[in-house]
Specification:
The chain is 34% helix and 21% strand. It contains 6 helices and 7 strands, in the order H-E-H-E-H-E-E-E-E-H-H-E-H. By secondary structure, it is of the alpha+beta class. It has one domain. It has a 3-stranded antiparallel β-sheet, with no helix packed on it. Strands 2-7 form a two-stranded antiparallel ribbon.
Length: 182
């Protein structure tokens, strides 16, 4: 019995010593996420699309906001020059930097340091229109010729013409009659 007691006491001392060492360990993790800087790119915060400030982005709000961005001179219409200009930048790539430091003996000097960096892109439905990430023009976004959009043939695309094309673009494929069997 004495031998078993001594082994148990030794195990308890080892466990106490181990738990004390584990308690002395300090782990520090620092994570930094920021937009990656791309030269000559206008950064756009998607929250500005929420024009009625209800916390929800509707298709109508996004369409109106894009129209306003593409209407560079703010005259209420998009002319042929504005139609081709890169005005809107898709979501900017993000950079995430993580540093993990472990100080096993709590002496203020980390014995282990891991550092990682990654670049990622927050998904946005608008990114699918900007293949080369050089900026989005009304032409690229809407995917229809300027003359086709100009219903009243005044050589300008007004908000109503834009809205009609935008709503057609965003219409769910399930709503297309040819997807149903007669």
């Amino acid at each position: 019995m004495k031998t078993m007691y001594l082994m148990t006491a030794a195990a308890a001392v080892a466990l106490i010593g181990f738990s004390t060492a584990a308690q002395a360990e300090t782990v520090t993790t620092k994570v930094s996420v920021q937009q990656k800087d791309i030269p000559d790119v206008n950064k756009v915060n998607l929250i500005v699309f929420d024009t009625d400030k209800n916390g929800i982005l509707s298709m109508k709000e996004v369409g109106q906001y894009l129209f306003d961005i593409f209407d560079n001179d703010k005259n209420g219409s998009i002319d042929n020059i504005e139609f081709k200009q890169k005005r809107f930048m898709t979501v900017i790539p993000m950079e995430k930097e993580t540093t993990l430091q472990v100080d096993f003996d709590d002496d203020g000097v980390p014995e282990k340091v891991d550092h990682s960096e990654e670049t990622f892109i927050k998904q946005s439905q608008l990114m699918r229109f900007d293949d080369n990430m050089d900026g989005l023009s009304a032409n690229e976004f809407i995917g229809t010729g300027y003359e086709v959009l100009d219903d009243d043939e005044d050589k300008l695309i007004n908000a109503e013409e834009w809205d009609e094309a935008y709503m057609e673009l965003t219409r769910a494929p399930v709503n297309e009659p040819e997807r149903y069997q007669n």
